[in-house]
Amino acid sequence: MSTSHAHPGHTPAAHHSPSPFRQPRAVWAVAFACVISFMGIGLVDPILPALATQLDAGHTQVELLFTSYLVVTAVAMLITGWVSSRIGAKRTLVAGLVIIVVFAALAGAAGGIGGIVGFRAGWGLGNALFIATSLAVIVGSASGGFGGAIVLYETALGVGIATGPLLGGLLGTISWRGPFFGVSVLMLVALVATVVFVDRTPTPDTPSRLSEPLAALKHRNLRTTSLVGLLYNWGFFTLLGYAPFLMNLSALRLGAVFFAWGILVALFAVFGAVRLKDRFGTARTLYASLICVAVILAVIAAFSGTVWVVIAAVVASGAFVGLNNTLVTTAVMSISPVLRNVASATYGFVRFIGGGLAPFAAGLLAESVGVTVPFLIAAVVVLVGAWLLSTVHRALEDADAEAERPGPSRERADAEAAVRQVPAVAEGAILAGDALRGDRR
Prior knowledge:
Blueprint: H1 25-38, H2 40-43, H3 48-54, H4 59-77, H5 80-87, H6 89-109, H7 113-141, H8 146-172, H9 178-197, H10 212-215, H11 220-242, H12 244-247, H13 251-280, H14 282-302, H15 307-335, H16 340-369, H17 372-390, H18 393-403, H19 410-418, H20 428-440
Helix pairs in contact: 1-7, 1-8, 1-9, 3-4, 4-7, 4-16, 5-6, 6-7, 6-9, 8-13, 8-20, 11-14, 11-15, 11-16, 11-17, 13-14, 13-15, 14-15, 14-17, 16-17, 19-20
């Protein structure tokens, strides 16, 4: 079980506000930036085919937009705590926003696929710095209470995931450059608001060490659940990165498909995961959800030439992607024996490596042996993840039992303390929200 630095005597109810949306301008500034940031991954989906056609690029080259972004994000997760502990969360947040503004604009101005891929890598660095600190800054700046800040962050997460593909499709109808310039402009607005409204944040008394995230992999439970995240993300990003090429749709219609997908991701990540976990437990819900993702990938492989089947499968996958995003994070955090900010860095590094390599591998396999192969491989990889999860089944059951005990628990205290630390993963807000509701029961 992880430990935390929660303040003695802290009770979530003492900070509860009747309206989660009565917050200072600083919170709204960062929440707006969160919405735009969470758009970042799904934003490029609708324009992938257009990039391949208009820039005369192969599918494998276009898939590098995911690979460069996610691999750099993964590596950067290892240093976010170290950076923030020395310059403060606000400066780290601002640095991330500046990098996103610059590199998103450079990607829009690029003349070829190589330039876009390179600039997406820089964008990934900025995204890591921003995401790792945004949750802590929102919670620290909130005057509407801890609970209100968490609800607002959950809302930003859902809105960003759902609307990213739609914005990408709308701007992509104008030009493939549109989504990149659009993000740059919106993030510039968020940057100015953050600089003006967010107060300077202090640095912690004890700076983080660079070695902490990788050293934490010596712990079996953290290593195992992080690898489950890697294997699941391999399947997830195979679908997200290569399925657009199977649909033969315009940018706007692709945006609509992934908008429907994003709505399901958001709903099941924020609401469905918590309810199913409470009813069936973390492990059992994850087994079922991972198997469903594997089945969907197999269906896409079997019917890759039937557009309506691919569309239906992609949209349906959103429900299970949402469940997995939240519940794999739950599994990692609930049984890791290290501080949650360290576990967040370790898990972010491992899972995004899988997410980054999968689209590139899918492109190579599709071009060399056919489009069905990457989806079949992804299905098998996700099933291996479900099997690997079973090796820590008892630990997950024990963590669920501890969290369900009446009254405030150490597990819930850890979840709430984690959102005040850097780095934090986005799903940490959902876990903290569930913890807060649990303490009120």
